[in-house]
Every structure is written in structure tokens, then in C-alpha cells.
Amino acid sequence: MRRTMLRTALLSLACLTAVLPAEASSRRHVAPPDIAENRVIPMYGNLPACEDPAVLGQLSSWFNSREAKFWGPLQVVTYDRVRPVAFRPWGDDFIPRRFCTGRVALNDGSLHRVDYSVRESLGLFGYTWNVNWCVSGLDRHRSYAPDCKMARP
């Protein structure tokens, strides 16, 4: 027991002072990466596509209610040029996200770029996906400034 404690103390001291050779430090146990699929509540990245009607419907609903409540009569009319930008761009150990961009036509006739991400397990009570979005030119509180850059990967 004394030898074990002495060996542990010497190894700890060597690690702290970095005098161990490279081969000895490479033998240390390294935990596997915390990928989302191996968590207690796993996340598999099963997300709807960018042009899925449920995704665009949720985006329209949130935009329309925010505009009606705080800013004015703007409403979403239609989307076009919707395309994916990235899927899990930060790696497998982060919450799975699908980043998308497109163009939205509003009821005043204007066209704006919309950047949004579909995120897994961030919906109601963590059971479903949700959408995080920004419409270029209409980010009045500059939450995603400059020009919705922070809503992109």
C-alpha cells in the first residue's frame, strides 16, 4: 500500500512538473468524446429538412406573432430559395443542428434573407425540435447582429 501511494505521489508530481517522457503521458487514460448519441438522453440528429412545411410553418408562426405583438402588420407570405447551409458544423459532441437559409416574401412586397437553424431536443420540454431564426433587416434588437450573422454557423 505504501508503494502504491508513493508511486501515485511521484507520478502526480511528475505530471505537475511535466517531466514525464512523451510515451508515458500518452499511456494515460483519455475518456471517449462525449458525442450526442452516447449521452443519457441521446440525440441522433433526426431533424426535418430545411424546406419541410412544419419547419417553415413554425418559423412563419413565430415571426407573424412577434410582428403583430411588437412591431406592426408584417406577415410572411411565402418562402423561396430555401437551402441547407450546414449540418452539425461544430462536431458530434454538440446538440445536433441543421442550419438553413432562404428568402422570405412579406405582405408589404419586400424580400428578405432568412437564416434559421432546426435544433434537436430544444422544443417543448426537450421532446422535440424547434427553430431559431433571424430575418435580415428585421432584427430590431440586434440579437443576431451584424445582419443575422450570429444565426449562421
Question: What's the pLDDT, averaged over the residues?
Answer: 82
| Uncertain regions spanning at least 5 consecutive residues | 18-30
Tell me, briefly, the overall form: elongated
Class per helix and strand makeup: alpha+beta
Number of helices: 3
Q: Taking strands numbered 1, 2, ... along the chain, how are they ordered across the largest sheet?
A: 1-2-3-4
Give the SSE order as H and E letters.
HHHEEEE
Question: Count of DSSP E strands?
Answer: 4
Percent helix, as a range, is 25-40%
Distance between the termini: 53 Å
Using only CA atoms, what is the Rg? Answer: 24 Å
Beta strand %: 15-25%
Q: How can the largest sheet be summarized?
A: 4 strands, antiparallel
Please explain how this structure is put together.
This protein is of the alpha+beta class and 153 residues long. 26% of the residues lie in helices and 24% in strands. It is elongated and about 70 Å long. Residues 18-30 have low confidence and may be disordered.
SSE diagram, text form:
Layout lengths: L1 H16 L4 H5 L26 H19 L4 E12 L9 E10 L4 E9 L10 E6 L18
Antiparallel strand pairs: 1-2, 2-3, 3-4
Task: Write a concise keyword list for the protein shown above.
24% strand, 153 residues, alpha+beta, 4-stranded antiparallel sheet, 4 strands
